[in-house]
Design a protein that fits this description.
Elements (H helix, E strand, L loop, with lengths): L2 H10 L17 H4 L8 E7 L8 E5 L5 H15 L3 E4 L2 E5 L3 H10 L3 E5 L2
The structure holds zinc ion (ZN).
Zinc ion binds next to loops.
């Protein structure tokens, strides 16, 4: 009677496989590469003028993506706004007030976006 044995082998096999990275759950890399756990999944676009010259900067906070994707999006946004900018600790900063354009772009990507501050 080795039918039950087969079943055991099958069920204990490799354990659970993560559907996102395809690794066994104990070697899952998703959580490590993800940016800080985002609070509520809402991306907030605000303007910061304090201590800045001219129009200030556009801040984009709450993006749930890894550092590489964030950098790529930063590049696109900078090109789109024709401005410089940085990405620091998951927060994107674009020089100048480009909130409307940024909000439009993020919405097109299917993200929930809120325009904050003034
Ligand atoms: Zn994974």
């Amino acid at each position: 009677m080795n039918r039950s044995k087969d079943r055991i082998v099958y069920s204990t096999g490799q354990g659970r496989i993560c559907p996102e990275c395809g690794n066994p759950s104990d070697r899952c890399t998703c959580k490590q590469t993800r940016a800080q756990p985002a609070s509520d999944g809402i991306v907030r676009v605000s303007r910061e003028t304090k201590g800045r010259k001219g129009k200030g900067v556009t801040l984009i906070q709450g993006l749930e993506m890894d550092a590489v994707s964030l950098a790529q999006m930063g590049k696109k946004l900078k090109a789109m706004c024709g401005s410089g900018g940085t990405v620091k600790e998951g927060i994107m900063e674009i020089q100048g007030d480009h909130r409307d354009r940024v909000v439009e772009y993020l919405k097109e990507l299917g993200l929930t976006v809120k325009k904050a501050g003034g």
